[in-house]
UniProtKB/TrEMBL annotation, chains A, B, C, D, E, F:
The keyword Transmembrane helix does not apply. Pfam families: ELFV_dehydrog (PF00208), ELFV_dehydrog_N (PF02812). Its EC number is 1.4.1.3. It catalyses: L-glutamate + NADP(+) + H2O = 2-oxoglutarate + NH4(+) + NADPH + H(+); L-glutamate + NAD(+) + H2O = 2-oxoglutarate + NH4(+) + NADH + H(+). Residues 173-324 form the Glutamate/phenylalanine/leucine/valine/L-tryptophan dehydrogenase C-terminal domain. Residues 308-327 are annotated as: Disordered. GO terms for cellular component: mitochondrion. Keywords: NAD, Oxidoreductase. Belongs to the Glu/Leu/Phe/Val dehydrogenases family. GO terms for molecular function: glutamate dehydrogenase (NAD+) activity. GO terms for biological process: L-glutamate catabolic process. This is glutamate dehydrogenase [NAD(P)(+)]. It comes from the Eukaryota.
Amino acid sequence: ATSRNFRQAARLLGLDSKLEKSLLIPFREIKVECTIPKDDGTLASFVGFRVQHDNARGPMKGGIRYHPEVDPDEVNALAQLMTWKTAVAAVPYGGAKGGIGCSPGDLSRSELERLTRVFTQKIHDLIGTHTDIPAPDMGTNSQTMAWIFDEYSKFHGHSPAVVTGKPIDLGGSLGRDAATGRGVMYATEALLAEYGKSISGSTFVIQGFGNVGSWAAQLIHEKGGKVIALGDVSGTIRNKAGIDVPALMKHRNEGGQLKDFHGAEVMDASELLVHECDVLLPCALGGVLNRENAPDVKAKFIIEAANHPTDPEADEDSYQEGSGRVA
Amino acid sequence: ATSRNFRQAARLLGLDSKLEKSLLIPFREIKVECTIPKDDGTLASFVGFRVQHDNARGPMKGGIRYHPEVDPDEVNALAQLMTWKTAVAAVPYGGAKGGIGCSPGDLSRSELERLTRVFTQKIHDLIGTHTDIPAPDMGTNSQTMAWIFDEYSKFHGHSPAVVTGKPIDLGGSLGRDAATGRGVMYATEALLAEYGKSISGSTFVIQGFGNVGSWAAQLIHEKGGKVIALGDVSGTIRNKAGIDVPALMKHRNEGGQLKDFHGAEVMDASELLVHECDVLLPCALGGVLNRENAPDVKAKFIIEAANHPTDPEADEDSYQEGSGRVA
Amino acid sequence: ATSRNFRQAARLLGLDSKLEKSLLIPFREIKVECTIPKDDGTLASFVGFRVQHDNARGPMKGGIRYHPEVDPDEVNALAQLMTWKTAVAAVPYGGAKGGIGCSPGDLSRSELERLTRVFTQKIHDLIGTHTDIPAPDMGTNSQTMAWIFDEYSKFHGHSPAVVTGKPIDLGGSLGRDAATGRGVMYATEALLAEYGKSISGSTFVIQGFGNVGSWAAQLIHEKGGKVIALGDVSGTIRNKAGIDVPALMKHRNEGGQLKDFHGAEVMDASELLVHECDVLLPCALGGVLNRENAPDVKAKFIIEAANHPTDPEADEDSYQEGSGRVA
Amino acid sequence: ATSRNFRQAARLLGLDSKLEKSLLIPFREIKVECTIPKDDGTLASFVGFRVQHDNARGPMKGGIRYHPEVDPDEVNALAQLMTWKTAVAAVPYGGAKGGIGCSPGDLSRSELERLTRVFTQKIHDLIGTHTDIPAPDMGTNSQTMAWIFDEYSKFHGHSPAVVTGKPIDLGGSLGRDAATGRGVMYATEALLAEYGKSISGSTFVIQGFGNVGSWAAQLIHEKGGKVIALGDVSGTIRNKAGIDVPALMKHRNEGGQLKDFHGAEVMDASELLVHECDVLLPCALGGVLNRENAPDVKAKFIIEAANHPTDPEADEDSYQEGSGRVA
Amino acid sequence: ATSRNFRQAARLLGLDSKLEKSLLIPFREIKVECTIPKDDGTLASFVGFRVQHDNARGPMKGGIRYHPEVDPDEVNALAQLMTWKTAVAAVPYGGAKGGIGCSPGDLSRSELERLTRVFTQKIHDLIGTHTDIPAPDMGTNSQTMAWIFDEYSKFHGHSPAVVTGKPIDLGGSLGRDAATGRGVMYATEALLAEYGKSISGSTFVIQGFGNVGSWAAQLIHEKGGKVIALGDVSGTIRNKAGIDVPALMKHRNEGGQLKDFHGAEVMDASELLVHECDVLLPCALGGVLNRENAPDVKAKFIIEAANHPTDPEADEDSYQEGSGRVA
Amino acid sequence: ATSRNFRQAARLLGLDSKLEKSLLIPFREIKVECTIPKDDGTLASFVGFRVQHDNARGPMKGGIRYHPEVDPDEVNALAQLMTWKTAVAAVPYGGAKGGIGCSPGDLSRSELERLTRVFTQKIHDLIGTHTDIPAPDMGTNSQTMAWIFDEYSKFHGHSPAVVTGKPIDLGGSLGRDAATGRGVMYATEALLAEYGKSISGSTFVIQGFGNVGSWAAQLIHEKGGKVIALGDVSGTIRNKAGIDVPALMKHRNEGGQLKDFHGAEVMDASELLVHECDVLLPCALGGVLNRENAPDVKAKFIIEAANHPTDPEADEDSYQEGSGRVA
């Protein structure tokens, strides 16, 4: 799909076909064997890789995923997508993506550390502050970045800038946690403004209360928006007068489930997407709106905040420590 | 086939299955985009790659091919094969293989130089005297190695040892040209010795008069063997009394075709493999002996000297400058 | 002249004669042979050089010129001048200068690219962000800097800071284009202020409408100055009421010649320097005011904006892309 | 003269004029300022340089001279000459030459050490085992090479191969001392052989008893040649029966002057070159044979062993420690 | 004492004993032999060292001392202290300390320069902008840092950030001179604020008028505090109405002794610490207040500004150029 | 003792006292903290160190010991001893020694591997083929060297020459195993030759049958010497007709104890050193001959082959894999 979109753009721009081909071929792809001793003393080999798509505009940038079915073609496409994303956002970076074919959930913390360090040893000469800067992605987090930073520094000296998404104590950026949700709020604000409306005074229904959905809800609430219905796997709730989002956050952070929140009534999950409201924000799985339920949607505006069909909150921009994917 | 053979060997050795898996996964694979200006000013992009299979026994070693249909799986297999070859030969090297997807015949010498230099710029950090040492292979030759050596030296200082198969004037090894043919002669000598025979006093039929066949013929002739029939695309000839191989070499080096050689009579090409003789040496295409013609073969011994089904003389051990594949 | 001025300064400062000698000897001079294939396939060799005068105050800084008659002594003098310029301006840099002996106008764009890349390969170890930072100069421009940046980055990783004067898209500084003209305007403003006057309310005659003159004219116009006469090779014009400089810029940018501009009347070129005005700004060739015409000059103030006898606008501070010197 | 000879050779070889030009331009020339504190505490600045002519055949090779009137053009010529010398001798090296403009005799040992170390600091990145390997030359010796080796090693690790001509205890080659004299003996032997003669049975007159002459005399003596006359600044002597060269060496090594040697009679210096003999070997100043004395020369063969008009024994091949030039 | 304090903190934090042990062991200690020629031509060898305690939070930071009795255990403790200081101050640095066992007062400036340069050559690979950044300390000053910076730059390129405390002309920080005194003033201000008081309106007695005491006095004076008594080795003075500190500074900078200052009356040194006042600031030797004089102290507040028993003003934070310790 | 011996030598050589002092101070000493996770998941910190005594004659050379009571002073002495040993043996190396304070017997193989790799990471910049080359020593073996080689190669490329004593399959030297015993045999041969005797025809008593003693016995047997008595902890045996050493080796290699060997009779261990013989070779503990037993020794010659009081066969020259010290 990425290539199809690119080809369409190339046609619209009247790009020379050779230049088009050249832009499609990645700058560099690397696969490395990562062999580690497991905790039980046996050896295990994993394949790690990094696709570096383009560095014409600056050092390449993109996530590192740990996933058993990392698909090379998909990763190629995502690396390319990073090139277009950094270019469209006009930041001086290129695009890359990488990962290791493994089930992070089946590896102990100590095995994950060893695997990450071996992977870093194998690619340390090909990444770097001025070359290619990894970030957390599906199945990795700020701890993974800390290991990469530490291992890379053994070879190149103290180099915190070799990764983004590292722990704040090691120089990570404040605000990364909320960034995707904040982007969703800004997109909502911009869309409404085009129609002479604002967040304050509108009503919102949000599907998903993970990293994206909870921050979107909170920031929309801060701007005066009324979140009237909200749901995730732990429950679906509504409150016509507007849910008290900070209270809900507190409830959830204390381990509570949505369905047990006192400030709202439980509703049927199947009614969430078709609930009456001004703005509907699907922030969980992608592909939830389809031919069948589309006619019943009553929202006036829809903001697509779930960008990945299988693991919607896990892309480089939204994944964060503590979301439980690694453990 | 390489992997199947390896797995069989692993079973016989009683290798642990994890170690077996680890030995099958290449140490490192790299793909790079090589964009060059063509002579007409347009841009062209090619994909170059290098598979480094194993370096446990020393720096990796293997050819660089230029071929339009370089198949990644085949190259992976060939890189692995190099690991086993260097190990079996007990030389302190590992295995690798690489190439560029291009038609060397469609590129000018100047385009080939630019392409080789760009490819070298892209992989220079991953090869080296102590890391991985390329060699000529299908579609490349000593000139290609000279370009790699020169470009590599811009980054790492005068480094003749970064490639083998370079021109003799730049430090290449004497005898490389004849090496495969000489190996064929040694194998023949060893086989005959086991049966109480020797080259001197035996008769030989040779298919192919390229790098392998012509050197095999010449060295067998020197050892007193009688080459009684011989053929390539320029003709098939025989002489019961034994062909004067040095004279034939001179004839061919002056541009003559086999069928025009005065010291032998022309025969039908189809009869070559089934010609009466002590030893038959197929030195051209692989797979020439099959179910159909096998029953008619009259030779007492067969030495397999054609190791590749599609381009038999072109592997790293036999390819040499001037064999016309590049031009 | 540079050395004479320096010696005079040294005397005034009471510098030890050994220290004086040491300050005159350049830190390092390098000459390299640059051989490239020309578009017609023949080889051509050029001599490139770099004089690094002094790095006591920081990385050295200075232009790269492409000119057939680059004179080593002159370049030495200019490198030294850069040391004094950076010191007087109190920026933490030293002084350098370099170039290639070639006629950029006789080389195709592709030949210029090859030449620049070979030159960069030959000196890459001696320049660098913390060592010596080239800039455009006579016969070179932001494209030349982009090539140096790209070639240098092959050796040292993404290094935009190795050159200044690169294209803005690659990290070049905004405002570089107008910098010299803006400096002329500031000098004018300062001079007038000393005499209780200001740009607003004064009349100006400007010789030259290239990079320096046109920006000086525009900025003086913005400050309320009245440009009453102006000339370059495409015509000499005047307008007592003040020329509409933005309109003239538009006219010129659309390819128009000065003599065809509607908002002014054509005058004789020879009268420009002796035209009645408050301030005369020679912004074209140096040495235009001499014993013969000096007595006739009627301007009350003269700002010297042409600093080079043969190619006045071409020094490192003023040269910019598109000024036609390369093509 | 070097260039003239080269051009003549180029004509004979039918070299393309562009290639000829390219071969004349040095690969790289570098000049550096070397400032040291003198023993009296004042500063002194010297200009050091290195001309690297050509590295196509291997690392460049050539001497480092310390001389007050080091002439850049002469050094360029000598660097070029080294390229042709290594090529003709078929050793895998290119050509270079360098030096410092100073009077080694006016500097203390400690000042010479400081100067050599500063010079090495300034050029260490441009020389090296695989790049350019200095050697002793006029005004430098094995001690100078030891300083270069030590200083270079601070930057690049223990690197004895960065210089030749170092002290034997630090890895210098045995036999270097006698090498030029031995070459003279071999040339003499080869010349005589062409005429059916041999050293044994011939008579010799030798001018000069320094490094070249004394070793030539000794080796000719060993081969059975009869040295019948011999001279240097300390005297001119003859002995029809043949001078006992080992005894003369002993005499001289004990500080004796030639004129005081008991095994020969003193003769007039002016008669040496015109003395009756089979072979005349001028091993002192160049240019001693000229239009005026040529008609009187009675030798049947002349071997030119003095290759430098002003300091004949001091080139890279002959200079050695202890010959008193530095002290 | 440092370790004891650390162990107490570890106990309070409930640190695992293995982690506690690991935090006590320095990351790296290095000792190097530094041999220099002395001015009289003889050789002298000194032992230089660097203890790098911990880099978990960033590049290590700490002074370089030149002192004849540098005690390894004390230096280890001080390096550890730097780790805790940078952590408590929440700056992203670790801790280190080093020095050379020598009497700086017995070495000439030229010997000190040679010694510093040799020491730098020996440790240059272990320090660096991203690794470990020295600073002046006892017996060293900004000139020492300039030598380290210059020598280090020979190996790693222009690197002003490899040291702090360098001369301002070479990039040193403004305000370093006054930093310790300013810290004393801030501490005083904070302490008084806790008791509802302020500097303005309080009276002060200051022991010591070196780098710490004079700046503390000046800054307290600026804030409106009344310095009523003050002493150093050149005299002890008092003025009930408040000493005019700027005038006293001028007096001292012109070489005057405290006892000769006209704006105060001389008093007995032994009475200084027990003088009536609101705040007493011992800014000279440590340990001046003890069991014997403590009962007599009349100050309501005491600010400890003397942190070192033998050389109180000489730690990394306070030492500055020109304080005469080296000369 | 080493320093005392050195001082005595210095006096005999008339060394300048400053040079003497300079020769005693090590070139460089380094201590590093090595923290590893133990198999049970807890952290453990060890102190590793390396003393590099002198590199004037070439790269430094010396063992790495793993021992709980590694004593810095002893290691300093041993490093110095290596300098004198390499100098006396006239090999172009300097001297070094190092180790880690740990009980190798208390660490699992996997913990030893992690510890060795961390230690190598901490010192990799300070050792190297041209700088300092470790070797096995007490508590380390060829496996330890293989780990160092592998870890070092991650930083510097395939570098087998960074250690000696590595496994033969990775490039270790043949004959290392027997080297010390062979040296003992050569020393014996030389001693006897001085007295007009030879190994053949002499009788030998050997204490110790470990690496040194068993090889000495075998090589003496090969030279025709008669080993008439022999002992280690597993028994003491004698045979007037000469023990069949190859048979004894076979017996021992099959796990047999000396006392169970059929080709000799068991004797009392206390009589071994005072047994009648031509040559006595103590090859076990040092210090076994003392005031008390010396008068009773009947051997005519004694060869000291036990050089270390506590662990006689464990020095760098004799230690080998499989001697059971690690396991």
